[in-house]
Amino acid sequence: PLGSPGYSFVAYGLTDIFVYFSHETISVPPSSHITAAHRHRTAILGTIIFEWDRGKAFLREMLEHSAQVVEKLTRLALIRGFDGLVLGVASNQLESPTYPFVSLPAIVTC
């Protein structure tokens, strides 16, 4: 409801890795989450997801320019202070077996 406090995660001390997720293509953890996680020595990861037709087109574009994408995402993580990204690809996003290495989620850490 409007006016209610947002969700807060308080078990960082019991967590090795916290993965921040939203249904955006690239989800960067908010600075408050990053600070709280690191205060408890918990790694915090953002996500890259490929959903629906928009995700399929974006995935193809990223794979065609993978070196530049890795460089930019690494800079983003270093500048914002989070520890890496989880890559999630819906199984129906790849029509060709050309990209079998992205058929399972991968963790990229900085």
Summary of the model, kept short:
By secondary structure, this protein is of the alpha/beta class.
Supply database-style keywords.
110 residues, alpha/beta, 5-stranded mixed beta sheet, 3 helices, 21% strand
Radius of gyration over C-alpha positions, nearest whole angstrom: 15 Å
The coarse silhouette is globular
Unreliable residue stretches: 97-107
Question: Strand count, sense and closure of the main sheet?
Answer: 5 strands, mixed
By secondary-structure content and strand pairing, the structural class works out as: alpha/beta
The overall average pLDDT, rounded, is 78
Per DSSP E runs of 2 or more residues, the count of β-strands stands at: 5
What is the end-to-end distance? 37 Å
* Percent of residues in beta strands: 15-25%
User: What is the H/E string?
Assistant: EEHEHHEE
Please provide a written account of the structure.
The chain is α/β, with parallel strands linked by helices and 110 residues long. The chain has helices at 31-39, 52-64, 66-80; strands at 17-19, 26-27, 43-50, 84-89, 106-109. Strands 1, 2, 3, 4 and 5 form a 5-stranded mixed β-sheet that branches. The longest helix has 15 residues, at 66-80. The protein is globular and about 40 Å long.
Layout: helices, strands, pairs:
Blueprint: E1 17-19, E2 26-27, H1 31-39, E3 43-50, H2 52-64, H3 66-80, E4 84-89, E5 106-109
Parallel strand pairs: 1-3, 3-4
Antiparallel strand pairs: 2-3, 4-5
